[in-house]
Amino acid sequence: MKLLTLLLTLATTSLVHGCLDQKMKAHKRVYIGAATDPNTFNDTLVAQHLKTEFGCVTPENSMKWESTEPSRNTFTFSDSDKLVQFASSNKKLIRGHTLVWHSQLPQWVHDITDKAVLTEVIINHIKKVAGRYRGKVYAWDVVNEVLSEDGTLRPSVFSTVLGESFIDLAFRTAHAVDPHAKLYINDYNLDGPGPKIDAMIALIKRLQRRGVPVHGVGTQCHLILGQVGAVPAQLQRLGGLNVDVAITELDIRIPKPLTPELWRQQQEDFHTVFKGCLKVERCVGITAWGVSDKYSWVDTYFPTFDSPLLFDDYMNRKPAYDGAYAALSDF
Ligand code: 9MR
After folding, report:
1. What is the value of pTM for the model shown?
2. Nearest CA to ligand 1 atom 6
């Protein structure tokens, strides 16, 4: 596997070197970012790329509920503090991820059945987590993945006990706690037309009508090679909602076995997605869900796929990087 990556690298040597984040800022956008946490930025080569290529970091796991409040009102911030420290000492923005999510949620929260208790628990969680990093987080994914594929509200302890109003509660609380943070609703599979993106658009409009402080929509963009063609049009739709738009978790996974041709296709696909963002005035930033293929959730969750990011296992720039760079170089 590693040898194959090395051969691919030699066959497709990158021609450009630069700073993706600076290129993005030249378009008057806010950042190009990457997900990380102490387990990855402790790799000096990852840290080096974060410092030179990226302007924003998203904690891949360390700010999630199971990490920060494993038991009720007992908070642990060791990894998230390290992430915030890394960001502040390297002058990087932070996208906080995530305050209210049905997954990576401790069992004690799943077990709540009482409205008043759950309301209090959500408020306390947001106060403690967003409060700890008040003024340091550029944007929060306040709620994550609240919709099912058919566009209905995803069944979870939050929706079951409180209905859609848990979303309003989360946003209003986050806004009260950190009034300067941009507050996002974030989800996946908003990459093509269908009931899910329709429902997301309708939900954002309902939130706006109710005066809920929603400032942005995050489209995760966990994509599959060769299946990115509909992304630009969906970004356009999200860009018409009078909220900021961000690509929050971009990766484009390749079916194994890898070949130079597939890496070239990935170059095109990254180009398409980056260009899609730049064509939408409200698209403020793009975050890759990791720096290097060496550390990607795809290895564990999709074992028949590989190589979803901009840098390879050896931290070399891939053709994917060139695709992103070329899109950002085009004015
Ligand atoms: O990348 C994250 C991985 O390390 C975790 O094991 C996984 C657990 O759910 O979460 C991954 O990140 C997810 C993100 O928080 C929300 N959108 C989907 C991402 C990939 O699963």
Report:
1. 0.96
2. 297
